[in-house]
């Protein structure tokens, strides 16, 4: 997740008036002081990297990284029928989420295509917080509002009310523990608790998008700098460094986590993305896209998402054609690709027909006119011990 997103590209120049309209997080000055390379992402000015992307990546795998994720969208759904409204709007069985727990889910269109992947936190008996990807937050808010019509529920886009920080990595607990009275050992994976961290009121969630243990902390924008500074001071002793969107992308790729606009689009359903488990066709109530998704489950996916690993050094990138090595004909397309700092080899994800999806299958990728060999491997590429 969700959601959560990352970028490889340097900041586009664009027109001056467009750059002036970029939204800035409450930590913008902090990122500049740290010498971050900034990029425009979904209308936000965000840190791409602070120094070495691979060093930031390794810090998250071996110690911890500190992320500013304020660009994510937060949408509150409240009221006596909030759960029923979300059951109708989303593919998941949201009414089954316990208070202070979270669930990964999706919002699909009537044809089963994926509009966004989401994390839904149940923050009270009749209160939910839906976290959407930055580029999709306005669409998700509008769709939830439309789909909640007829239910006793209120949908409110609260994105401006939150800053979001994340501490990700094996030392995350050790970094947060001295800053809060909350017993972090009692905070389960995909759970959330109201807490005070470094004197700041937060919603502390044990979620993330890196493949490592860690926490995401929702706070008021006015408290973001104070929280960042406190986390950074303690984290330095544990090897934590600031981390940008670029390493977040390679981390999630190694962990086999999809990125909206790459692995997830309206052209695919959760079944092609190997995420059919999030679709709850057993819900008693109807939901948007149910008929199309039921038909796809019965028919089976037409293609499937696979991992690809290259024995060479040339890196597959999104949009490159996947080839049958015997015929040199395209059989699929790379959705994401990057050098893997953990594995020391180029890796990618791609959609291919089922007959080419078995791990061990030899394929090729057209990299600037050369058919570079790759092998299909099981996802994820990396799984923490």
Automatic annotation (TrEMBL):
GO terms for molecular function: aminomethyltransferase activity. It comes from the Bacteria. Residues 1-25 are annotated as: Disordered. Residues 7-25 have a biased composition (Basic and acidic residues). Keywords: Aminotransferase, Transferase. It catalyses: N(6)-[(R)-S(8)-aminomethyldihydrolipoyl]-L-lysyl-[protein] + (6S)-5,6,7,8-tetrahydrofolate = N(6)-[(R)-dihydrolipoyl]-L-lysyl-[protein] + (6R)-5,10-methylene-5,6,7,8-tetrahydrofolate + NH4(+). Its EC number is 2.1.2.10. It is an enzyme of class 2 (transferase). Residues 305-383 form the Aminomethyltransferase C-terminal domain. Pfam families: GCV_T (PF01571), GCV_T_C (PF08669). The keyword Transferase applies. SUPFAM superfamilies: Aminomethyltransferase beta-barrel domain, Folate-binding domain. Residues 29-283 form the GCVT N-terminal domain. PANTHER family: AMINOMETHYLTRANSFERASE, AMINOMETHYLTRANSFERASE, MITOCHONDRIAL. The glycine cleavage system catalyzes the degradation of glycine. The glycine cleavage system is composed of four proteins: P, T, L and H. NCBIfam families: gcvT, PRK00389.1. Belongs to the GcvT family. This is Aminomethyltransferase. The gene is gcvT.
């Amino acid at each position: 997740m969700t959601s959560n997103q990352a970028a490889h590209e340097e900041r586009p120049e664009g027109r001056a008036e467009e750059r002036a309209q970029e939204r800035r997080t409450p930590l913008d000055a902090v990122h500049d002081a740290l010498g971050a390379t900034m990029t425009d992402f979904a209308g936000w000015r965000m840190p791409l990297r602070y120094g070495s992307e691979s060093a930031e990546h390794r810090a998250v795998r071996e110690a911890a990284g500190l992320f500013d994720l304020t660009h994510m969208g937060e949408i509150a759904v409240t009221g006596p029928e909030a759960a029923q409204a979300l059951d109708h709007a989303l593919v998941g069985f949201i009414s089954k989420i316990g208070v202070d727990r979270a669930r990964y889910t999706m919002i699909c269109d009537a044809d089963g295509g994926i509009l966004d992947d989401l994390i839904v936190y149940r923050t009270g008996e009749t209160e939910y917080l839906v976290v959407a990807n930055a580029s999709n937050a306005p669409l998700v808010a509008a769709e939830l509002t439309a789909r909640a019509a007829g239910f006793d529920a209120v949908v409110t886009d609260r994105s401006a009310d939150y800053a979001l920080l994340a501490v990700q990595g094996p030392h995350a607990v050790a970094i947060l523990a001295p800053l809060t009275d909350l017993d972090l050992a009692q905070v389960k994976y995909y759970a959330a608790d109201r807490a005070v961290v470094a004197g700041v009121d937060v919603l502390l969630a044990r979620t993330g998008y890196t493949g490592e243990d860690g926490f995401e902390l929702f706070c008021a924008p006015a408290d973001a700098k104070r929280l960042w500074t406190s986390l950074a001071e303690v984290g330095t002793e544990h090897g934590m460094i600031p981390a940008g969107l670029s390493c977040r992308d390679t981390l999630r790729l190694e962990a086999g986590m999809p990125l909206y606009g790459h692995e997830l689009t309206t052209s695919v359903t959760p079944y092609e993305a190997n995420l059919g488990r999030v679709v709850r066709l057993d819900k008693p109530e109807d939901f948007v896209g149910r008929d199309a998704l039921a038909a796809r489950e019965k028919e089976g996916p037409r293609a499937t998402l696979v991992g690809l690993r290259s024995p060479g050094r040339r890196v597959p990138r999104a949009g490159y054609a996947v080839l049958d090595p015997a015929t040199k004909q395209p059989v699929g397309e790379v959705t994401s690709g990057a050098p893997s700092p953990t594995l020391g080899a180029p890796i990618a994800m791609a959609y291919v027909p089922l007959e080419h999806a078995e791990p061990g299958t030899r394929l090729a990728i057209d990299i600037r006119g050369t058919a570079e060999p790759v092998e299909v491997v099981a996802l994820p590429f990396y799984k923490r011990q």
